[in-house]
Design goal:
Strand order of the largest sheet: 3-4-5-7-9-12
Largest sheet: 6 strands, mixed
Mean pLDDT: 90
Radius of gyration: 19 Å
Distance between the termini: 31 Å
Strand content: 15-25%
Low-confidence stretches: 1-37
Length: 297
């Protein structure tokens, strides 16, 4: 296992150089800067929002509908880790194209794999590095989010969808089952009966239905989706970064702990905020009727 940032991921494959083509979000993004000098083959990275405090990752494998090949996942995890370590970034948006967020894992890569190698390598486990990112991630989903695409979206903290988005776990139709959260995160998000229906039939659901199930937070016209996601990420990034990360950690604990243990954990995390300068600054600013000046510590 190779170290990447503060997290461990599988060794990165050779990344081919490519040119970056930043997208301009005129309403919120007066200036753009590239995350780093890194060039990517399968993704694009921008820094957007007020004072460049929002990281934007665009999956960019259009001929394959952003199918999640190993190289794309390596690049995505690398970019997210870089943004997680960037002190100027407070939140991240991950998106694809209007046609596809990600149409699934790369089946051609999987076709000839066997159980022994899958087990020894703990195949797909490295995808879970997305969940180790401390900063909030918003998935802005247009078009298809199927199989691994739906699972990657569920690894994010908030999902916004375009009106034509489709979410599904169609693995049953090719003789396998989800392997990166489709039977677990999906069930926790929408309940057993609906998850069973999606996983056992392989039939996708639309954006409105996904929102009614609680899988998606909000639905927008496809052409405004990314701007709306950036707007929300920009709002999150306007708060104290350390407090935002504490809040994310506490909220995620609700999926792992009993109510009693979760309440205990929440209280300890709440109490821990009183060890930060930003808690004192936030309350002082409120009393003094002014905007807080966060120091992120």
């Amino acid at each position: 296992m190779a170290a990447l940032g503060l997290k461990c991921v599988r060794p990165l494959r050779n990344l081919l150089a490519c040119s970056a083509h930043p997208q301009l979000h005129a309403k919120l993004v007066p200036q753009l800067r590239l995350m780093s000098s890194t060039s990517y083959e399968f993704i694009k990275t921008d820094v957007v929002g007020t004072d460049g405090r929002v990281g934007l990752v665009t999956l960019n494998r259009p001929k394959a509908l952003n199918a999640l090949c190993a190289g794309l996942m390596d690049e995505l995890i690398k970019a997210l880790n870089e943004m997680d370590e960037d002190p100027k970034i407070g939140a991240i948006v991950v998106t694809g194209s209007e046609k596809a967020f990600a149409a699934g894992a790369d089946i051609k890569e999987m076709q000839n794999r066997d159980f022994a190698s899958n087990y020894k390598e703990n195949f797909l486990e490295w995808w879970s590095n997305i969940t180790l990112v401390r900063k909030p991630i918003i998935a802005a989903v247009n078009g298809y989010a199927l199989g691994g695409g739906c699972e990657v979206a569920m690894m994010c903290d908030i999902i916004y969808a375009g009106e034509k988005a489709k979410f599904g776990q169609p693995e049953i139709s090719i003789g396998t089952i989800p392997g990166a959260g489709g039977t677990q995160r999906l069930t926790r998000a929408i309940g057993k009966s609906r998850s069973m229906e999606m996983n056992l039939t392989g039939t996708p659901i639309g954006a409105a239905e996904a929102a009614s199930y609680g899988l998606v937070s909000k639905v927008f016209p496809p052409e405004t989706l990314v701007d709306e996601a950036v707007k929300t990420a920009d709002k999150i990034a306007s708060h104290s970064k350390i407090i935002v990360q504490i809040c994310k950690e506490s909220t995620n604990a609700a999926y792992e702990l009993s109510l009693k243990e979760g309440m205990r954990f929440e209280k300890r995390m709440f109490q821990s905020t009183f060890a930060t300068n930003d808690r004192k600054e936030g309350m002082t600013a409120f009393v003094e009727k002014r905007k807080p000046n966060w120091s992120d510590n």
